[in-house]
Amino acid sequence: MLTVPVDVRFRDIDAVGHVNNAVYLTYLEQARLAYWRKLTGKSELRDIDIILARVEIDYRSPIAFGEDVDVAVRCVLLKRSSCVLELRVTERGSGRLVAEARNVLVYFDYEAQRPQPIPDDLRARVRAMDPDVVEATS
Q1: How far is 49 from 70, CA to CA, in rounded Å?
Q2: Domain 2-135: what homologous superfamily?
Q3: What does the pLDDT profile of the chain (138 residues) look like in tens digits?
Q4: C-alpha–C-alpha distance, residues 23 and 33, integer Å
Q5: 74-89 burial, b for 16+ CB within 10 Å, e for fewer?
Q6: How many CA atoms lie within 13 A of 116 on its CB side?
Q7: pTM of this prediction exceeds 0.85
Q8: What are the domain boundaries of the chain?
C-alpha cells in the first residue's frame, strides 16, 4: 500500500464550498500514477504502460477548503492483463473517510494498441508491495 498526500487547491472548490466531485478523479489519478511509478520505477510519460479502464467512486463526506487529504492505494486483484486498485481518500487532519474508489487498469501496448499480459517480474513487485493481492487466472 502506498499513501499519497494531496493538497486541496482553491480551484478544486465549487460554488457549494467543497471539493467538486469531478476533482476526486484528479486526486485518484495522482495516487494511481505515484503507485505505478513506485512499483515500476518508470518516471517518463512515454514509459507509462497502463490505461485506465474503469473508475468507481463512493463519496462519503465532503472536503472543505483548508482541508487536505491523503489517498491510500493498493492492488487487490491481478488478472492476466489487468489489475484492480482500491483507493481510500481521508482528510489528513482527522482521518475522516471522504471517499472510496476502485480503478481497473489494463497493462497496455500502445504501439500495438491492445492489452498485453502483465509480466511475471511486475506481478512479483505487486505481491511485494501488496501481499494480500488476489491473483486470478482469467
Answers
A1: 25
A2: Hotdog Thioesterase (3.10.129.10)
A3: 999 999 999 999 999 999 999 999 999 999 999 999 999 988 887 888 999 999 999 999 999 999 999 999 999 999 999 999 999 999 999 999 999 999 999 999 999 999 999 999 999 999 999 999 999 976
A4: 16
A5: bbeebbeebbbbbbbb
A6: 11
A7: yes
A8: 2-135
Residue 88 in grid coordinates = 481510500
Cell readout for 92 is: 489528513
Cell of 96: 475522516
Joined grid coordinates for residue 50: 497502463
Render 27-96 in DSSP notation, one character per residue. Answer: HHHHHHHHHHHHHH---SGGG--EEEEEEEEEE-S--BTT--EEEEEEEEEE-SSEEEEEEEEEETTT--
Question: The cell 512499483 sits on which residue?
Answer: 39
Vertex 50 angle, CA 91 and 11, to 5°: 35
| Grid cell at residue 131 | 501481499
